[in-house]
Amino acid sequence: MEYRTEHDSLGEVEVPAEAYYGVQTLRARENFHITGVPMSHYPRLIEALAYVKLAAAEANASLGMLDEDRSRAICRACEELISGKLHDQFVVDVVQGGAGTSANMNANEVVCNRALELMGRPKGDYEHLHPLNHVNMSQSTNDVFPSALNIALILELRELMEAMRHLQHAFARKGDEFADVLKMGRTQLQDAVPMTLGQEFTAWAVTVGEDIQRVDEAEDLVYEINMGATAIGTGLNSHPDYARTVTEKLVEITTLNLKQSPDLVEATQDTGVYVQLSGVLKRVAVKLSKICNDLRLLSSGPRCGINEINLPPMQPGSSIMPGKVNPVIPEVVNQVAFAVIGHDVTISMASEAGQLELNVMEPVIGYSLFQSINMLRRACLTLADKCVSGITANRERCRELVEHSIGLVTALNPYIGYEKSAEIAKEAMRTGGSVYAIVLEKGYLTREQLDEILKPENMVRPRYTK
Questions:
Q1: Kind and range of the H or E element at 128?
Q2: I want to staple 336 with a disulfide (CB 3.0 to 4.6 A). Which of 123, 128, 379, 410 is the partner?
Q3: Radius of gyration (Cα) for the chain, nearest Å?
Q4: 183 CB contacts (<8 Å, ≥6 apart)?
């Protein structure tokens, strides 16, 4: 392998000649063996960093700070990164010390060396184009990294919400399909009153829809960025019009409704938006996990459980019990939820750990948010396609449980009165008999009256009148 020699304030380092990254990236790769996950694993983050570098080059050129040739080469290199090229050159671990400086330098060096090639010069020829003097002009890691993180998060959140809508529609379709299936509703794992299976699935569609709205609301907060803050928010080493100009350029390039923070000093040290976003992701996770618990309960059995629904069989469930099939899809979504809840704790602690004018823990905040969003997105798609869409109802089992449930007397109470309802409940408990059969035996209602009361369409809304 051939090498080129590069230097920084700590000395000289041999960099592979074909690498687009440089000395600072190489040091960071050697220093941070933490997650084993390089930045290249998150293409949206690389895309966002390229957007920031492109906007900065255009802003600096428009303000007379950067000459046209250098600006044009930087912009072309950034456009290549945005299109997906050279992502393999982002080799720094996503969790790193230095508040994201290594991530910023990885971007500066890759953009710089590709721009040098476009100018007809060799990699490492920093006399003609420098990663810090030119690519990083008017910038600091402390405004580049959080701004890029916000842009990447917006793009990731849009994909998450699309996956959530897919899941919502899957539940809604099952709600329509099961609208005529009468079943027993339950509270505190005890029989409650009759409902339809369609109502149960429709309720899950509604709860996913509510969470889509909450994610959308949280996303709105992420549009505020601190570009132009440079080191601590004072804008040191930048043109007086740079902050406004670079933000305008970013809006134009990304087509996102980004806006400059009203106080750049505050924005550079504050990570409250990430805490709030993580809290919303935790809410999504908790509610998805609850739904998956319900799916596992309702499908339990098949002979010795509730067994009101059948989950699609995805794989054999045991190495020792022949024929056993487990609810593996709801189980894996449960585990995703546990991980997201853990990431929320990490983000809370990392946000609290910020001191004075900067929070240096943003890399682990970003990593945790990306993990949560990506896992939830995949979980929603997996749950919809490999579980919900294939669920079938055990109609006879649902009806049987309604007719034998003690809770049925609650639905009959307006028609036969509380005293008779209590009498029937006690007899059913004592004898193990069916509430439906005991009512018929005592002549309190006819079969026609009972069946009319228990029609699914009569269970989905208030209807009793004297």
A1: none
A2: 379
A3: 30
A4: 194, 195, 196, 197, 200, 308, 398, 399, 401, 402
Q: Measured between alpha carbons, how far is residue 168 from residues 157, 218, 340 in Å? A: 16, 19, 20
Statement: residue 338 has pLDDT above 90: yes
Phi, psi of 44 (to 5 degrees): -65, -35
Please state, in angstroms and rounded to a whole number, the distance separating the CA atoms of residues 323 and 353.
51
For 344-353, the CB contacts below 8 A with 24+ separation are: 344/278, 344/279, 344/281, 344/282, 344/368, 344/372, 347/274, 347/275, 347/278, 348/275, 348/278, 350/271, 351/271, 351/272, 351/274, 351/275
Which residues contact residue 284 at a Cβ distance below 8 angstroms, ignoring those fewer than 6 apart? 164, 211, 214, 215, 340, 376
Q: Are strands 309-310 and 259-260 parallel, antiparallel or unpaired?
A: unpaired
Secondary structure of residue 283 in the 3-state scheme: helix
Distance CA 40, CA 392 (A): 41
102 catalytic per annotation: no
Residue in 311, 461, 448, 298 with CA at minimum distance from that of residue 384:
311
Cβ count within 10 A of residue 29: 17
Q: Which amino acid is at 261?
A: S
Cα-based angle 355, 358, 359 (whole degrees, multiple of 5): 70
Structure tokens at 181: 């299936």
Taking 90 as the threshold, does the pLDDT of residue 215 lie above it?
yes
Q: pTM to 2 decimals?
A: 0.93
User: What's the mean pLDDT in 10-16?
Assistant: 94
Spatial contact of 362 and 98, defined as CB atoms under 8 Å apart: no
Tell me how far the alpha carbon of residue 354 is from its chain's centroid. Answer: 24
Q: Can you tell me whether residue 73 is helix, strand or coil?
A: helix
H or E element that contains 195: strand 190-196
Catalytic residue among 318, 348, 368, 372: 318
Residue 459 CA from chain centroid, whole number: 36
What sign results for the dihedral spanned by CA atoms 402, 408, 411, 416?
A: positive
For 38-62, what is each residue's pLDDT tens digit? 999 999 999 999 999 999 999 999 9
**Contact status, residue 309 vs residue 295, Cβ threshold 8 Å:** yes
Q: 328 is written with which tokens?
A: 């593996």
In this model, does residue 217 exceed pLDDT 80? yes
CA 298 to chain centre: 27
